[in-house]
Amino acid sequence: MPAKKPRNAFYAQSGGVTAVINASACGVIETCRKHKNKIGKVYAGRHGIVGALTEDLIDTTKESAAAIRALRHTPAGAFGSARYKLKKMEDNPAQYERLIEVFKAHDIGYFFYNGGGDSADTCLKVSQLADKLGLPIQAIHVPKTVDNDLPITDCCPGFGSVAKYVAVSIREAGFDVASMAKTSTKVFIMEVMGRHAGWIAAAGGLASEKEGDAPHIILFPEITFDEERFCARVKECVEKFGYCAIVVSEGVKNTDGKFLSDAGLRDAFGHAQLGGVAPVIAQLIKSKLNYKYHWAVADYLQRAARHIASKVDVDQAYALGKAAVELALKGHNSVMPTVVRASQKPYKWKLGIAKLSDVANQEKMVPRDYITEDGFFITEKARRYLSPLIQGEDYPPYKNGLPRYVELRNAPVKKKLDKTFVL
Amino acid sequence: MPAKKPRNAFYAQSGGVTAVINASACGVIETCRKHKNKIGKVYAGRHGIVGALTEDLIDTTKESAAAIRALRHTPAGAFGSARYKLKKMEDNPAQYERLIEVFKAHDIGYFFYNGGGDSADTCLKVSQLADKLGLPIQAIHVPKTVDNDLPITDCCPGFGSVAKYVAVSIREAGFDVASMAKTSTKVFIMEVMGRHAGWIAAAGGLASEKEGDAPHIILFPEITFDEERFCARVKECVEKFGYCAIVVSEGVKNTDGKFLSDAGLRDAFGHAQLGGVAPVIAQLIKSKLNYKYHWAVADYLQRAARHIASKVDVDQAYALGKAAVELALKGHNSVMPTVVRASQKPYKWKLGIAKLSDVANQEKMVPRDYITEDGFFITEKARRYLSPLIQGEDYPPYKNGLPRYVELRNAPVKKKLDKTFVL
Prior knowledge:
Largest sheet of chain A: 5 strands, mixed
Order of helices and strands of chain A: EHEHEHHEHEHEHEHEEEHEHHEEHHEE
Radius of gyration of chain A: 23 Å
Number of helices of chain A: 13
CATH class of the largest domain in chain A: Alpha Beta
Strand order of the largest sheet of chain A: 3-2-1-4-5
Oligomer: homodimer
Structural class of chain A: alpha/beta
């Protein structure tokens, strides 16, 4: 009796990319390649789930082992990501049926979806529907989000590297402002990402190891912005330390619950498109305190900064990609591998597993006891949680003074369906 | 006959600090320490020239060899810098006389001033006046400026590291935007420093090694901003490459010769305090082309980014500090050591010497033939000049996931003068 032909795998990246999402892709693809008797080809979605809907698949078997290996040190989404949230099943079943149709046409038996809370939900629904339609697909979610807001897992790949970037950057900028403060800039404001959860802003606090170190103030989305108390604190820092370095989360809200700065745009998930709270804070400081200021907005630089990635983060991103495949091979479905903190000191982590039904559409905020009582800094408890996540440097290779990041061939898979699909 | 007691040296940092100005300080101090028979103690000005005027001197002999060595990998100004430009000699001779008085009181025979064009001018005047007042001081300027706008020297310490930061960052952000462009952000704008000269913006161009690579557009202060042609170029890039990554210099001016964004503040040198041209460009793209955008303002992060410093830059910064002392020991006065490009391929550099009278108050702009005819990119000639300056990585040591930068004791020298001086 001939062996059953192994079914193919589909891998896609979703939402905002990170410095290490490709390390997860590397983990998925390298592990699949080691189990060719059980998993056929790995197809990637060009631009994430959009590639699946439009039958625009990438044949990763056309990539060399060296190219796939280089994904481990390459930031952003090598196959293209997408901000494209599927509608609710009952509102648009055709979308889900189309996915199953494409997967059926290409004999997809494994669905590895690499994203945040929204994509965990998509992953779950695809698995449920496939089952119902008689095409069993093992759907495994690979966690990823710089926002670090997924539940159950101790941390999310992508976060540790942003955290390291932010802590390193505010330390360096702090040294700069300290040098200038006597005759020039007294206040420096660095805006970081974090729509609703202040994990990234919190990480800036790691740069301060003793009294007076930058940053002096952190503004969290979890804490309502109080103009008066904030200005008083800035003044206190300038008088005490000679200068004041501030990390502000893009998601900081005022007493009306409105974002301090809202560009008015919304992304496909309905999230407000933010940016520019730093100049708002700077203007406030100028008008109320008349200090000379400088401000920076890190934006994409922070989440793309593979050059200063955390080794722990890179290792976890790879391990979770690998674990996703291994869970599938063990017969798991509708699950997500997680990071479990096995030991605090020395820091040790291991892999765990979570049901997607427990993960989808949930946000994990910074707990109140991670923030000092006055709302302007992190506590020791937060520091104990955050510090291990930025440990170790994992420098990419350089050529001509610049990091060598890989660009894949991304060869298309021949289409099999007549019908096209309008997004 | 007893040997003549060696006279002391004064060292100060001036103007905006850099990732490698402390490497020059390290070169100065370590070299002085090797010639104790000729140079006594090295005193540093606390907050640059302000420390000299107020007789607030730092005794660097109180610092260990290890602490001084660590300056080589520590960004910003370890003794404090100052934005404080001395008035013209004829407008305020008292300032210069005070400097000489302080130097006389502390037996200063060597004046090492680490700064840009303004401080080269100060250095020259101090030397001239000291001579006239019968207290000969050998004044040597140590070049420093991220703006890379000093004449004669092939390049300026501080620039190579900003150049590397900008090229690395726009490459990384370019990968990010490319991943997102299908369904989300299509245009990314990164604002960099460069008041009048576009060297830093130009360096971003190194990230693009083949057609389609980020960045696609560079906006220079040397080229008048033409809204219509710019928008047409952005559209062309988005249509051709799927996205558009832009590096914009803070000093870009419109057809009226006004900065696109001017915060209205001026610093002590009378330079406009800029920041925030990126959001102006973003808004333009939104309103004229309706593309989704993201923008970043690197600000101090770029010039403080010791974690991604250029090895060539660090080596040159140290060598110039060392050379300043060696020139003084050879009897030179009113000069500045320079970097001379000895060979283009392979890149080799050696040290030269320039008269301060040829250096002071001059700005070296990006030559027109370093910018493409359309004004939106760098030429091959520019690339040949810029590329060697970002070569090599010179990572600082890390502890707990963060770079270990040194903070000196900065012990004060006992004052000898009765009179205080009001700035």
